[in-house]
Amino acid sequence: MCEKEKNLPSILVVDDEPGIQRALKRILSKKYNTEVVGSGEEALGKLEEKEYDIAIVDLRMPGMDGFQLLRTIKLYRPQTEVIIMSGSASEEKLIEAIQDQAFYFVTKPFQKEVIETLVERCVWTQRLQRQNLAYTTQLERYLDQAKEFQASLLPTQIPPVPGVRCGIRYVPSEVLGGDFYDFYSLSANRVAIVVADVFGHGVVAAMRTGIVKSLFAQAVRDDPSPSSVIHTINRGMNRFGGESPLTLFYGVLDGESMLLRYANAGHPGPLLCRTGGEVESLDSSAPLLGAGIALPKNPEMEVQLARGDSVVLYTDGIVEAVDAEHRWFGLDNLLRTVREHSEQPPQAIADELCRAARLFAAGGLPLDDLTAIVLQFEPPE
Question: N or C end of the chain, less CB within 10 A?
């Protein structure tokens, strides 16, 4: 077989009438690699050796009939399209052929132009399906690479601050998301923390988390105060004309004074867990960023911490996890989970928050990104 013939679509004709075999061979072999056999059993032998693009199968044959062969082909050679031929076309046969995934049902005697057009259409459909599959496979590979890149933007640990322990848990969704967090060491005792959630999913949201990272790094180097940082990030995101809103929490934690200065721009309120089990939510101090909304001139707030206190930062993927009955995980479940595990190390708390949200949403809607960060001052001995 020459190289040109190797690249031609292949067709297997299965019919016990020699006249039909000769006619189809003569019509199809001009443009396709065409083989003919006289029974379903012979066809199965051929199909064990290779996969054909198209099988043209007579309905009534001795031994294995056309429907039996069609079902076997679809089971073992699902990429092979099957055209059923019959001397009659009852509605029952047509319905059965459709149910068994036949590409088409043609009646005998057939016109040469009908067979040529039908096979050409089938080959075109297969070529389009293969192109779509190749494109989808390539797109999935690109998305996997983008998810890997997005995950690489997220640190696995906080810069060391004496007396402060940290637990981090990030669970990406099946699609590219908009969760982002980062840390920046300001001194031996001070660290800057940002947790953000860009609205939406997909490539655009993922790209804009990279922009937030760049804006954060530059803003902290220029002036790490909470007010300055969120104003800088807001100006940067507003360049997109209000199409990239995000919620953002930014704080500066001082391990020596145990003071947390922060600005919360529409982000879910971090939880402050006091020694002894009391849990409260920190208020927002500004609207969301990147939406063209004016910010307060000084949205900075502060909270004094003590030994044993913890701060739980999270994104809305946890509280908005939805179960099979369309109920949200919600703030109540979040508070209960934090209270039940408040005596555990920060990593265990972060792990449990994400685990509880995923368990709650099992069988429900797909989860958004889940991010939980727990900062804890080491309790007194």
Answer: C
